[in-house]
Design a protein that fits this description.
Blueprint lengths: L5 E5 L5 E2 L3 H11 L7 H8 L4 H11 L9 H18 L3 E2 L3 H10 L3 E5 L4 H11 L9 E3 L12 H10 L7 E5 L2 H9 L4 E5 L6 H5 L5 E3 L5 H8 L1
Length: 228
């Protein structure tokens, strides 16, 4: 077991419980163009990615000539729909998450949030939850902060740079999608954790071969305490 200096948490579906509103909205924006894609299909091919890239990747999985479909217009529609959805939405953290953050802080472990959202959306979510930098987390890294999104390791490396963490073997990456685990592995994180509270099932997460798959991130308390 590795000593952990930094935990990098994905946001929606991992620490943020927003009832999959982002992917439901993504599904709606794509289906507005005449598709009939299920939420499961959208999650399978789009979860965890920068959202314009997610749209492109989802369309590429559909048996059609995607060159005739303007992904940019779908993305703009998605952003408009999401803003409306978020105004009405109650956003919370999953049970036990805030206690987990306190536990990590008490053990001098730094906390980064990273996300395939843009900075505006991520900040809007955090404001709804009344999470403050310095209290609930130490740095936020979004799709706007890097050139290459997941599964590339750039967001994790940026979080390490922001927080002066130099040994990637002392970094734990946790997320609810396969691409989160791939991101952690590509960064060569000491531990990669899948959690079943969001986009992908236990079997889907295990297919990416993380260090652990958990039903709740609260289980990290015991894992990390063992590592200290």
């Amino acid at each position: 077991m590795h000593t952990i200096e930094l935990v990098v948490f994905d946001m929606a579906g991992t620490v943020v419980n927003e009832d999959n509103v982002v992917y439901k909205t993504l599904q709606k924006a794509i289906n507005n163009k005449g598709f009939e894609l299920s939420l499961e299909f959208v999650l399978e091919h789009g979860a965890g990615k920068e959202k314009h890239q997610a749209i492109k990747d989802i369309l590429a999985q559909v048996d059609t000539d995607t060159t005739s479909i303007n992904s940019e217009s779908i993305f703009e529609d998605f952003k408009r729909l999401l803003e409306v959805a978020y105004e009405k939405l109650e956003v919370t953290s999953f049970d036990g998450i805030e206690d987990l953050l306190v536990h990590l802080k008490n053990n001098n472990i730094k906390i980064a949030l990273n996300t395939g959202y843009n900075t505006y959306t991520a900040t809007h979510l955090l404001n709804k939850m009344q999470w403050q930098q310095g209290t609930h987390y130490d740095t936020l890294v979004t799709a706007d902060d890097v050139k290459l999104g997941r599964p590339n390791p750039d967001m994790i490396l940026k979080a390490m740079e922001n927080l002066n963490v130099t040994d990637v073997q002392k970094v734990l990456k946790a997320g609810d999608s396969i691409i989160d685990i791939e991101e952690g592995k590509n960064a060569k994180c000491g531990l990669t954790i899948g959690v079943t509270t969001g986009a992908h099932t236990k079997n889907q997460l295990q297919s990416a071969q993380p260090s652990y798959v958990l039903d709740s991130l609260v289980e990290l308390k015991e894992l990390i305490t063992t590592a200290l």
